[in-house]
From TrEMBL:
Protein name stated in the entry: Glucokinase
Family, per entry: Belongs to the ROK (NagC/XylR) family.
Primary gene name: glcK
Positions of transmembrane segments: none
Length: 350
C-alpha cells in the first residue's frame, strides 16, 4: 500500500485510522484502493490522563485534523479504525481493572470505541494496538496476497505485544484477548544461564516471553543479573532504569554485556515462534519494537538471532519468512485503518 496520488476520483471513499497512545494520537487516511493519503507521522495530544471525556474530544479533533490535512471531505469517510493499548475487549471496552494508559477509575470498563462512534457519527472498528501493528505489517509484507496468508508478530517495547493474523484478519478470540504473546510461558532451557534466576513478569507469571523480551524484562530481570557478570561495565554506575534505556546504544557497538542481554531476548522470541509454528504454522514471523529503530546492522543481527533460535521443520523453513515490521511509528494507525477498510469491504460484499 503506497501513498496515494493527490488527485482522487469523485466516486472514491476512505477510512481513517486512529492510534491512541499514552501521550499522543496518530492519524492516517486510507482510500478504497488501498493507498495511504499521508506518508508521515501525524500526531496530536491524546489527553488520556485527563479522563475519557477529554480523550474522546482529542480523538475527534485528530479525526477532523487528518481530514483537513489530506483535503478529504467528511462525506467520503465510511468508517474509522481505532486502536489503543490493552487489555480491552474485542469491542473496545477497557478492562474493568484499567491498564497502563487507562489507570484512572473513570476509564475502568469504559467503552472507548462506542464513545468515539457516538461522538463522530460514523462506524468505528476497534483493535488492540499491537494487533493493529501486526495487521499493518502483514499487509505491508504480503500486499495483494494478504487475505490468503498468515503471520505471527512480536512487538517488543515496554512490554511484549503481538498479533496473530490468519487469512488477512486478526485473530481476536472469544474475549478479545488473543495474541497476548508476551504472556505465553516458554521453556527456559537454552535461554537462561545455569545460575540465572527465573524471570518474573509484572502479570504474575514466571518465565513468560515478556519477562525476558521487553524493556521491563531488561530492568527487572536481565540487566541486574548480567551486571554481576560485568562488574566494571560503565552501565553499573547508572540507575537500572537509565541503564536499561542506554543498553540498545551499547548493543549497536557490539558491547558484550548488551549482546548477552539481547541474545537472551532473541532466544526467548525464538521459543515463542517455535510454539507458534506448532499452533498456526504461519507464512511469516514478524518482529517489531525498539529493535527495529536501531542501527541496521544491529537489527539484522537481532532478527538473525531470532531466526536461528526458532526451531522449524525443514518444510516450514522452506515456506516461512522472517521480517521486520515496517514503518513502526505509523504501523498502529495504518493497521487500524486496514481493519476498518476490510470491515467496510466485507459489509459491502466487496
Amino acid at each position: 500500500m503506497d501513498q496515494a496520488e493527490s488527485v482522487r476520483t469523485p466516486s472514491s471513499w476512505v477510512v481513517v485510522g486512529l492510534d491512541n497512545g499514552g501521550t499522543c494520537n496518530n492519524a492516517t487516511v486510507l482510500d478504497a484502493t488501498g493507498q495511504y493519503l499521508v506518508d508521515h507521522l501525524v500526531e496530536s495530544p491524546s489527553l488520556v490522563t485527563e479522563g475519557p471525556e477529554s480523550a474522546i474530544e482529542a480523538l475527534a479533533e485528530a479525526f477532523h485534523n487528518i481530514l483537513d490535512l489530506t483535503s478529504t471531505p467528511l462525506t467520503l469517510v465510511r468508517a474509522v479504525g481505532l486502536d489503543t493499548p490493552g487489555p480491552a475487549s474485542a469491542t473496545g471496552v477497557i478492562s474493568s481493572k484499567g491498564s497502563t494508559n487507562f489507570n484512572q477509575k473513570s476509564w475502568h470498563g469504559f467503552d472507548i470505541r462506542g464513545a468515539l462512534e457516538a461522538r463522530i457519527g460514523l462506524p468505528v472498528y476497534y483493535a488492540n494496538d499491537a494487533n493493529a501493528a501486526a495487521l499493518y505489517a502483514h499487509y505491508r509484507l504480503f500486499g495483494a496476497d494478504s487475505t490468503t496468508r498468515s503471520s505471527v508478530a512480536a512487538i517488543v517495547g515496554t512490554g511484549l505485544g503481538g498479533g496473530v493474523v490468519e487469512n488477512g484478519k486478526v485473530v481476536s478470540g472469544a474475549a478479545g484477548m488473543a495474541g497476548e504473546l508476551g504472556h505465553v510461558q516458554i521453556p527456559l532451557h537454552g535461554v537462561l544461564e545455569n545460575d540465572q534466576p527465573v524471570p518474573q513478569c509484572n502479570c504474575g507469571f514466571e518465565g513468560d516471553v515478556e519477562s525476558i523480551a521487553s524493556l521491563t524484562g531488561i530492568k527487572k530481570n536481565l540487566l541486574p543479573y548480567w551486571l554481576t557478570k560485568f562488574p566494571g561495565h560503565p552501565l553499573a554506575a547508572e540507575p537500572i532504569p537509565t541503564a536499561a534505556k542506554m543498553l540498545r546504544g551499547y548493543g549497536e557497538k557490539d558491547d558484550p554485556l548488551a549482546l548477552a542481554v539481547f541474545g537472551q531476548q532473541a532466544k526467548a522470541i525464538g521459543k515463542l515462534f517455535t510454539i507458534a509454528a506448532n499452533f498456526t504454522d504461519p507464512d511469516a514471523y514478524l518482529l517489531g519494537g525498539g529493535v527495529v529503530e536501531a542501527a541496521p546492522h544491529f537489527r539484522q543481527w537481532f532478527l538473525n538471532a531470532v531466526r536461528e533460535s526458532t526451531d522449524l521443520r525443514a518444510e516450514q523453513q522452506a515456506a516461512a519468512t522472517f521480517a521486520l515490521v515496517a514503518d513502526l511509528d505509523m504501523a498502529g494507525a495504518r493497521g487500524a485503518a486496514v481493519a476498518a477498510l476490510e470491515a467496510v469491504r466485507e459489509a459491502r460484499g466487496l
